[in-house]
Amino acid sequence: MKLVILITSNVENGLEVARRWQAAGAPGVTLIKSVGLYSLQQIIDEQHIELPMHSGRSMNSLMAHVLRGMEHTNHVILSVMSKAQVPTMLEEARAVMGDMTLPRHGVAFVVPLDEAIGVRNPDADS
Does the structure show a pLDDT above 60 at 122? Predict the structure, then answer.
């Protein structure tokens, strides 16, 4: 089994990739809204945000304060699947996201799994 992960700041394209993975037979697809640390740091720097008086005066406190009010700007799309399904899912991602070697087109990677519990394995004997 493999874990395929796609991270993108283009939410509409991320949703399209998730739908395509599901249609292509991924056993399950999970979407998680997220914010990249770099984006968070840029907002703090550009807007010269100050911490409220009642907060601690650390950078972590400042980031947490800003994060609470931010809209999540990224999607992390996850799916555990058989090794044989991976090329199809990556091709579906490329079809939607375009050239992922270009900035802001998304990042995809595959992680080998030693064990997956509770995931339907299409390669397993019934």
Answer: no
Supply the pLDDT for residue 57: 60
Q: What is the pTM of this model?
A: 0.75
Q: Between β-strands 74-81 and 30-34, what pairing exists: parallel, antiparallel or unpaired?
A: antiparallel
Tell me what pLDDT residue 103 has.
82
Q: Which class would CATH give 1-34+73-114?
A: alpha beta
Domain boundaries, the chain: 1-34+73-114, 36-71
DSSP state of 104: T
User: Cα(27)–Cα(122) distance, rounded to whole angstroms?
Assistant: 8
Rounded distance between C-alpha atoms, residue 114 and residue 76, angstroms: 22
Helix (H, G, I), strand (E, B) or coil at 112: strand
